[in-house]
Amino acid sequence: MTTVSSNTNNGANLSSSTADLDLRQNGMTAIRPDRNTAYGESTTAKPVSDESQLAMMDAVRTMLLSLGEDPEREGLLKTPKRVAEAMRFLTSGYSQSLDDLVNNAIFDEGHNEMVLVRDINLFSLCEHHMLPFMGRAHVAYIPKQRVVGLSKLARIVEMYSRRLQVQERLTRQVAEAIQEVLDPQGVAVVVEASHMCMSMRGVQKPGSWTVTSAMIGCFQEDSKTREEFLSLVRHQPSLF
Ligand SMILES: Nc1nc2c(ncn2[C@@H]2O[C@H](COP(=O)(O)OP(=O)(O)OP(=O)(O)O)[C@@H](O)[C@H]2O)c(=O)[nH]1
Ligand SMILES: [Zn+2]
To answer: Which band of pLDDT confidence, cut at 50, 70 and 90, is reported for residue 49?
Structure first.
């Protein structure tokens, strides 16, 4: 039996104009857990301390001045603090650890069939422009007897989203994290996201969706397993 969880609320405010998943298969990023990519996330990134928050507030004040704004006018007085706090939240994933997050919620269920949590909504910041990208992740694995608490899959997506990211790396990190904590037969992750740096500025293409995937183990090696995953991702639940 295959387990499928879906957060249908999350899809409500997202366009359904996602590209046909069939077409995405050729573009899949097949990865191994130990693979390094050219993107290497900074190892020096750390959670924002109180001191860094003050520095960030100063930087925001400088930006306001550079824009020709008056940081002392009433509407902007608290803006440096608000922005610094928002950035602190939006990058809070740097201060989380996989072990703490999973909290030993691993259960020996003797289950060896696919588990999929789909439509996990996510909000992240692209590291090139520090503008949001948002969308959803579909996360699946095939256990070797042991399963992980379902919410932990969404928490893993959350931890890696709340950082400065590129979508490809986010996708890969989620897959590798599940492989690391559970050592399952395989992991599959698809992320569909819309980048504000491509909508609000630059090339200005609102409505475009970027789809990335990461496949480990049996999802990489066995096309039937991959097919099953993709058809479950495509299927629209009609429960609610
Ligand atoms: N691969 C990848 N590229 C991204 C992601 N987020 C933003 N980018 C791209 O990063 C690139 C940065 O390109 P640059 O030419 O250095 O910057 P730019 O002049 O602001 O580029 P434009 O967005 O084309 O105006 C752009 O093509 C963005 O679309 C991501 O998650 N993955
Ligand atoms: Zn960007």
So the answer is: confident
167 is catalytic: yes
DSSP conformation class of 19? P
Task: Say what the alpha-carbon torsion angle 132, 133, 136, 138 is, to the nearest 10 degrees.
Answer: -120
Are 183 and 144 contacting, i.e. CB atoms less than 8 angstroms apart? yes
Domains of the chain: 50-93 (1.10.286.10), 99-233 (3.30.1130.10)
- Write out residues with Cβ below 6 Å of ligand 1: 126, 128, 166-168, 195, 197-198, 202-203
Rounded to whole angstroms, the Cα distance separating 41 from 19 reads 28
Q: What is the pTM of this model?
A: 0.84
Mean pLDDT of the chain: 86
Tell whether residue 218 is among the known ligand binding residues.
Answer: no
Assess contact for 161 and 89: CB atoms under 8 A: no
Residue 151 has pLDDT above 60, yes or no: yes
Each residue of 195-216: pLDDT tens digit? 999 999 999 999 999 999 999 9
Out of 172, 197, 210, 212, give the residue to mutate to test ligand 1, the one with the largest number of ligand atoms within 8 Å of its CB. Answer: 197
